[in-house]
Known about the structure:
heterotetramer, A: Rossmann fold, Rossmann fold, five-stranded mixed sheet, 12 helices, C: alpha/beta, five-stranded parallel sheet, two-stranded antiparallel sheet, 10 helices, 10% strand, globular, binds thiamine diphosphate
Amino acid sequence: MRELTYREAIREALREEMKRDPKVFLMGEEIAEYGGSYKVTLGLVDEFGHERVRNTPLAEASIAGAALGAALVGMRPVAEIMYIDFSFIAADQIINQIAKLRYMTGGMVKVPVVIRTQGGGGVAAGPHHSQSLEAIYAHIPGLFVVMPSNAYDAKGLLKSSIREDNPVMFIEHKKLYGEACEVPEEEYLIPLGKGEIKRPGKDITVVAYSRCVLRALNAAQDLAKEGIELEVVDPRTLKPLDEDIILSSVQKTGKAMVVYEACRTGGFGAEIAAIISEKAFDYLDAPIKRVAALDSPVPFNPKMEDYVLPNEDNIKAAARELMGK
Amino acid sequence: MRELTYREAIREALREEMKRDPKVFLMGEEIAEYGGSYKVTLGLVDEFGHERVRNTPLAEASIAGAALGAALVGMRPVAEIMYIDFSFIAADQIINQIAKLRYMTGGMVKVPVVIRTQGGGGVAAGPHHSQSLEAIYAHIPGLFVVMPSNAYDAKGLLKSSIREDNPVMFIEHKKLYGEACEVPEEEYLIPLGKGEIKRPGKDITVVAYSRCVLRALNAAQDLAKEGIELEVVDPRTLKPLDEDIILSSVQKTGKAMVVYEACRTGGFGAEIAAIISEKAFDYLDAPIKRVAALDSPVPFNPKMEDYVLPNEDNIKAAARELMGK
Amino acid sequence: MPEMDAAKLKEIYATMVRIRFFEERAITEYRKGLPGFIHPSIGQEAIPAGVCAFLREDDYIITTHRGHGDIIAKGARLDRMMAELFAKETGYCRGKGGSMHIADVERNILGATGIVGDGIPIAAGVGLGCKMQNLDRVVVAFFGDGATNSGAFHEGVGLAAIWSLPVLFVCENNQFQQSTPMRDYTRLTDLADRAKAYGIPGITVDGNDAIAVAEVARESIEKCRKGEGPILVVGNTYRTVGHHMGDPGTSYRSKEEVEEWKKKDPIDRLRRQLLENKIATEAEIEEIHNATLRELDEAVKFAQESPEPKVEEALEDIYA
Amino acid sequence: MPEMDAAKLKEIYATMVRIRFFEERAITEYRKGLPGFIHPSIGQEAIPAGVCAFLREDDYIITTHRGHGDIIAKGARLDRMMAELFAKETGYCRGKGGSMHIADVERNILGATGIVGDGIPIAAGVGLGCKMQNLDRVVVAFFGDGATNSGAFHEGVGLAAIWSLPVLFVCENNQFQQSTPMRDYTRLTDLADRAKAYGIPGITVDGNDAIAVAEVARESIEKCRKGEGPILVVGNTYRTVGHHMGDPGTSYRSKEEVEEWKKKDPIDRLRRQLLENKIATEAEIEEIHNATLRELDEAVKFAQESPEPKVEEALEDIYA
Ligand SMILES: Cc1ncc(C[n+]2csc(CCOP(=O)(O)OP(=O)(O)O)c2C)c(N)n1
Ligand SMILES: Cc1ncc(C[n+]2csc(CCOP(=O)(O)OP(=O)(O)O)c2C)c(N)n1
Ligand SMILES: [Mg+2]
Ligand SMILES: [Mg+2]
């Protein structure tokens, strides 16, 4: 089967959905000729024109607010916030309006808005361009939060997100754009709220999402040589969260680790750990481990950055500890 | 000893600190003659004038940003965001600048900024004026997050916050303003990062903060009649979190419940539960319970609101379940 | 008198009366014990009545925390509004929103907001949706003077301007941001000057003169419809009651000032004009009043007798 | 020629050369392998050099992602700047910030930001702090044209205006918001018109004419110092390189346009003026160049030889 990068898969999802439905359009900063900061939308303006691939002023609150307005009258906007770090400027619109309007009106309106953004470290972009902020949006009722870990998932989930009548935060990872995997030519969708076991294993359940799935898979490969079999569970969407896939894995393994790139304290991994400790307590035979970023802004110096972010070695160490080795 | 309400205690803390240090000043919407939405700052403009009790334009990003700027050149601003719901408008300045500037400059600057705000439900104020959003700020390295549950704590913690050289989110609860307790005339400070046991008990550790402390104490009183003794632990500040007081209580009781008014999913109670499950696992003899708001915006209808928010009955039910009754 | 036909003028008058009486009744009911906050717009009715007089049914509006007037002017039902203030199942938001969140999508009233300023970028988006779908519709964003201080105003108007969207931005300038008078938040004396930052027209009108407002609105709406939008219209007016029910409205302005403005009451003014110009008779006016009062009696009855929502409905309308 | 003394003019020239050469050297080093992003300001040097020429040492500046020029013009050390680009312990931010976050509080350079627009309200606050403490200091907020679209601009300038703060807002208008030309984000052709929304002066100046910039800045700074601030100054200029090192700068503008602007290079221009007016000799100019190059060799050496920060220092400077 052909391979696509994560970047290409996302672009293909956008293209297919724009072709399928004339109401779908893109808006964001520098997304037309420039193709976006990570070139995800490159070329789409040639195909769909500036009406449907709209460069906006540098004004994130209005990007989100206008996406909502357009959605209220029948459009299906895919609005891009260039870096999730900048999403705070739009956060009031996203959290107070986009997420709540359907609710506040007693269900009177639909809000088919996708906010595409990207986060994460790994390119020495410094404290303002490297954050992992999914926990903030996953705390807000009304928002879907999607964090694909590979090209295949990214495409199928983005297409579902665009077809969803409720708002979706679609959070990509800048270090995944160049990663490729098999993506079929035929159309497919992946439902929001369904996780996937990325690697089966009997010893430890490792819940990971976005780039941390790669880290977990790499660690699993190494650990297998030591006789430790990780089961890597990728929820793919944080809201809704596929609790079943997590809990049934923990029931099998009796051990759980959560891996995430956000700051440890208050990260979404805390929620996953809390769920496990509440709902699978009787199956657990060891404390739940969290492998996450240290509680620090992401520093510029690449070695410091590596030090702050979670990595394969942290996962391996935690796994060995869980196994009592 | 004299009693003060939470409102009066906060006002007294502001007054004392403004008297002590001419660099301390207040800025925010409608805080002067109007006295603020909940009349906390009422009268202070008469005492200190408009130079130090500054009404601002309706522009929350500039309130936070300007507080930072003033702090950089030696002032000690106490900036008010009228409702924490509106803090998203200022969130970029709070999270990307106020919280990180000391770090980003390699420690070159100090950032003595207090953001005073209030949250919580209970007054039928609807989805835009009732949220509990502490989890968002507690996820951000660099920010102190303080959530006092009574007048005494509020005063001592606010005074410490104003003297702190790093930024503090000081989050009040609108339903506590009228609650009174003893507050000495003499000056006192409460250190940030120290929790307190509000009621000792042997059976279940209940970690609660802000208004939920009251709920927990009420529940504890009732449960005592049934022979269930709750130990109510109030961390008072979420960042830094007094892990010791929580963990040593759990070591004693072997059972833990976390009570918070924010939406359950991704609330700060998840972090507390995750810490307990990681660091006190071997002492636990039951799953960690979370009693929190349902995952919903806060609806306007008061009965619906009551249904969504956590209450004494939820705490009691969870406690009985933990005790196997 | 302007070139508006008598029917239109009476309609505008009736709208103002509906707004005033609705809010007066809401205040009465609130004092008897309704939940939450309400922000009455008493004294400001000429602006919504004048602006909405020339909106088509399929044009849109978006409004604010002080939005009863705008919503009524666009045609919302008083009974369902009242039921919402009563937090009832039959309320526009099924009791979930309350006064600050009323919407009626059937009448293209897209909602209100408790977060001041937020409706402005949303309205730009509505305009965008209209334009992209060639809907030949206009959207009006109502907001207060204080809202013009917000980043949301700047970004929303800026976006509408660069994309030439069919949006009429209507600032209901009651000269106070809650308790803060204009002179304490801007150097401008004419808020329409804000328009100059976007290269769009900014028009100031006496916001207590319903006819003047309607004239300006008619022209501006037509321009927006022809693709000459957006336009900023500032109506200068005054709220003669407190900010909300908890505010006596006395700490930040003088009694005299309030009394001065009460003399300029927009409803009294239009009534005088209608009578002096023999557009309406005293009897007709009385009938407008009486019909509204009857409607309000019905509305309150409807609200009172409507069921409370089931508490479990709190969890409906949430999908993630 | 203006009434500026020769020394000042040569100082301005030297500042521009320092900026240009620093960035050219940074680009060279970056190509050899520095981490992260850098946003060079090549072509725009006249604005910081002109503005900072009349700032006092104790005046403040705050800048942006494209801030090297502003920081150098305010007097920062090239070696510590270079060390920061190298992510070294001796860098201004001890390797934690990088190009977009350089500050030097000793020189009252209060920092830069990766979030476009955020410096503007912060600068208002600095102005407030100065005013409240009677410090007799002025703060300059540098930002790009794209930043004027942000809510932060509106709120920050608005606050400075109503409180009459000693803030000079300097828009380095390179006519593009990254890849988006002015005509695609605003109807204005003169960004100084933004000032009209706040009732403050807005002044446009040829941003490639260092002398003109310096004249405007001198006057504006003095006005701000006298309490007549804030003031908005827009310098029209052009970035003749890409947005950052990853951008060839070709997809959104023509080669011809870039070439046209290269002909208007501000450094060439001032050099010609200095020579024609016999303010400086070729030899003096060459010495300015050579001295700068020597300083840069030292700076690069310093950066190269400086130690990396210890990774554990990542956790320093965090208090909660
Ligand atoms: C973003 C935000 N900030 C503050 C408030 C609190 N608040 C509610 S109304 C108001 C004043 C708004 O003034 P204006 O826009 O003139 O409207 P008016 O109330 O006069 O109709 C304020 C400060 C809010 N609701 N939202
Ligand atoms: C709030 C925010 N939005 C978007 C970006 C991405 N970005 C970085 S620079 C830039 C363009 C800024 O344009 P301008 O203000 O004119 O400055 P210039 O780059 O031209 O110097 C953009 C969109 C950002 N860093 N911050
Ligand atoms: Mg007003
Ligand atoms: Mg620019």
